[in-house]
Amino acid sequence: MTVAQMPVSHFRNGIDRILFDNAPTPIWLEDWSAVEAFCAEQRAAGVADIDPILRDDEALLRQVAGSVLVKAVNRSAVEFVQAPSADALLGNLPGELLTPGSLHSLRRQIVTVFERRTLEQHEVSGADFGAEALDAQMHWLAPLENGKPDYSNVVVMFWDLKEQKAAQRATEAQVGVLETLLDMSRGIASTFDVDLILDLLAATSIKLTAASGAMILLFSTSERTIHKQVIHGEGPIDPRPSIDYAMLETGPAGEVIATRKTMLIEDMGNPDNSTMPEQFQEQLSGYPLIIAPIIDDAAVVGIVMIVGHRNSSFHPGHESITRMIASQASVAIRNASMYEEMRKSHDEVQAAHDELKNTQTQLLAAQKMEAIGGLAAGIAHEINTPIQFVSDNITFVRDAVGSLGKYAAMHIEILEQLTDHPEHGEKIIALREQWKDEDCDFLLEEVPAAVEETIEGATRVADIVKAMKEFAHPGQEDLTPSDINRVIETTVQVSRNEWKYVAKVELDLDPTLPMVPALPGPLGQSLLIMIVNSAQAMSGQDSSKKGLITISTKDLGEVIEIRVSDNGPGIPIEILDRIFEPFFTTKEIGKGSGQGLSIAHSVIVDKHHGDIWADNTYPGAVFVMHLPASQKSKEA
Q1: CATH class of the domain comprising 191-314
Q2: pTM score, two decimals?
Q3: CATH ID of 480-635, from 3.40.50.800, 3.40.640.10, 3.40.50.620, 3.30.565.10
Q4: For residue 495, is pLDDT > 70?
Q5: 566 in Cβ contact with 537 (< 8 Å)
Q6: Cβ(155)–Cβ(162) below 8 Å
Q7: Least confident piece of the model among 124-133, 216-225, 473-482
């Protein structure tokens, strides 16, 4: 039979007083008859739910709760509420027990009576009944009398949950620590930036130890210099102190560095703490401190300092946390160092790969240009001989036509003189008719002009052949004094077919330009690339109007400047800094290899030790090249 099922007479008379008094569970025997009467009145008045009324009217709640009569309590109950005696608890509930915490519990019990129930149980956490805050399980029971709740003999019992709650809170705290450590591990794993990792470790140490501040220092004991300082929090380390290595050596940190052991200082301002610099003792008075060494490869490379709140204290677990933070800092430093070495190695390999790729590109281009140059030189040589024959023969024809013209003029003069001689009349008439039929007047006038045009064309072909031989001259590897203006003229001559339909070329060449150390072949090829680029850029413009390519030279003293400009669409600003990259091209696949300007850059910068850049002139674009004017200026 449970207590709630016991008849009143049995419960009241059948419990042995000694067992009641000595029961380990706090027990109250209470009379709730007045509460029952209040609830009956409320039900009669049509109230369906008493709970919101009691919530909104604390005075009413206190009045109703105060009507409860305490008939008996055991010793555990007296101790539970820390009352002076059992008699102090008898009668109406004392006002000192009607605290906000207890009123919450009593309200629920009044609702139980209103609803004619016999049992109410709930946890009481953080409330107090005139004593310290409670963590308990409350059971409120009304025994049955003739099948009805007897509210005049209510039994109230409490089961202390302090230890259970403390264990629960400890578990939750441990879970919180594990979650914090997990977040820290994720943060450390996501980066190799030492500054970010140290910042995360400092913040984590404050969170795990409930400290006021944390400082992590990295230094070199051999160089006696501090090279990283990360600070988090407030208290004596805010504002940020200026720390040098000499200060570390004279303070408790020096002992930690020497012994490589974690140190706990209960009060940094304690005069008995002889290791703390005197000038800091007043400022640091009352603050506890933990210092742990950061050890990497058997050497102390830094320290972790965690400062508690003033007049507080650390517990041994906080020392373990500080050592763990120091260990994580050591691992982070080692990983960051390894990553930096790997990154440098990767960069070196990448640089070597890029250089090899660039060299291969230039080699292929050089081989191709050399092959084309050799072929062009051979063709030019083959053309040169017959064109010389043509030129010589046309010159001969011009001279012969001139002689024949003189001879014909003499014949005409003689015919005019014989006109008056009848004996020759018929022959003269026949000669005049034949002269007219053969259109000899026209021939004598036009043949010399045609011959002159033919000589001009042959001379032009000869010039082109000469330019091709100069442009395609293979095998030169050393810089030799060169006529830059001549190189430009030759290149313009050779490239005529690339630009003559879309643009005209104007030359503004400095006639005072000195001979410059250069490789005429590669330099000419670089100029050709820029001229072709300009022509191609203008080929998509209005075909009814030709563009303009201007090439100029200027003596700037130590350098010779070459400018190739056009009035085309210009270079998109977003790719301006990439146009000299190997294999970078804006042309469609199969129409551009992205090697031209890269090769030109290599020729100017690597082979001539000069400089090259591009810019927009609005409209159009310009390529600017600077070549050292002499071997001396190149070496400087």
Answers
A1: alpha beta
A2: 0.42
A3: 3.30.565.10
A4: yes
A5: yes
A6: no
A7: 124-133
